[in-house]
Structures are given as C-alpha cells and as structure tokens.
C-alpha cells in the first residue's frame, strides 16, 4: 500500500508507518484489493486526511467503516460521491442540519465541502470488502486512526469532536477534554434516530457557536 497522504499528516504519523502493525496492515490491504472488490478505491483511502490538513483541522467527526456498496465510499465518513443516492444515516444528518440551521436539503451527499473547511471526516477503519461490512476491522486500521486522534488531541488546541453513537463515544478516552470540546449524541442511523437519540442534538449550530467564540470561521454546513 503506497501511503499517499497530505504532508502535514505524513509528518505527524510517520512513526506509525514504520511500525510492524502498519506493515502487516499494508500487506493485508494490498492482498484484499488484489483478490476482491474493495472500497474506497486505493487512491481515496486517505482522502479524509488529504482534504483536511493536520494544522487546518477544526472539527472531527468519527465514523466506523466505509460504505460497502458500489460507488459510495470515497474516503470520508458518511460522505458519498456526487450523484450517488444518500444512505439513510446521511439523510438523517442532512435533516438535522436543516432543522438546526434552517438550510435546504442538499442535492449532493459529497462532504468534501465540509472537509475543505476543516472538518476531519474520519472512519476508524479505512477500507472494506464489497458487501461485507466490517470485513477489514481488527487488522490495524483502528490503531492508526486512534493515533491520528491522539496526535490532534496532544498537539492542537480548541478542537471540537462530534461523537455520534456508542462506537464513536469510545474514542473519548483519546481526547484531552481539558483543552478540546466534545459533543455527543446517538448515531444518525435510522435505528438510533427513530428512537429519539439523534434529532434535536443541534451539533451543527453548537459547533459554529463555539468556533465563533474562539474567533474561528464557522462551518458552512
């Protein structure tokens, strides 16, 4: 696996690339992509980092696994490419943005526009075999992405972490809450949202209030 990643992140994570677990992970990913259809395409695996440099990150949203259907995943959690039907969780995210901020429902589910404003859309696992959710979990990706969160927590100040659902909330232990803000809620998936754990969290307006108070430009959600 050729690690083509934004220079700002390469500098922070260089030590990870040299560790035995990452070399084993790299071998596993290469083999999987050679033998099976996997997502996202190889050049998109590190897209979240490429669109949101280390020193420009303002907000972190945690996902679990890339989408495993054709044409959906492109390296950023919850995001799909232009023209792709919006998955249920993304529909609920956009509904909450609209309810919270009074903005119209967007045509495109491509969240590059968020990432380019400083929102790191990080899945815990960065690859998946087609139609097999979780198939690349437990192979080392989680160690790598946990390291990225820890680096942000240690070396940056005043970040906002949005942790949605039980899996994301487990990442709280990696974050220094004395210098970063953490907003939590249920997951935007229909199962959680329909039980009342997602809608009304107002994370998008709250994030912009915090950014504005800190003298930072709010996100155009």
Automatic annotation (TrEMBL):
It catalyses: Hydrolyzes single-stranded DNA or mismatched double-stranded DNA and polynucleotides, releasing free uracil. GO terms for cellular component: cytoplasm. Its EC number is 3.2.2.27. Its main location: cytoplasm. Gene3D superfamilies: Uracil-DNA glycosylase-like domain. GO terms for molecular function: uracil DNA N-glycosylase activity. Keywords: Cytoplasm, DNA damage, DNA repair, Glycosidase, Hydrolase. One of its GO terms (biological process) is base-excision repair, AP site formation via deaminated base removal. SUPFAM superfamilies: Uracil-DNA glycosylase-like. InterPro entries: UDG_fam1, Ura-DNA_Glyclase_AS, Uracil-DNA_glycosylase-like, Uracil-DNA_glycosylase-like_sf. It is found in: Cytoplasm. It holds the Pfam family UDG. The active site is at 65 (proton acceptor). The keyword Cell inner membrane does not apply. Excises uracil residues from the DNA which can arise as a result of misincorporation of dUMP residues by DNA polymerase or due to deamination of cytosine. HAMAP family: UDG. Belongs to the uracil-DNA glycosylase (UDG) superfamily. UNG family. This is Uracil-DNA glycosylase. It comes from Cerina litoralis.
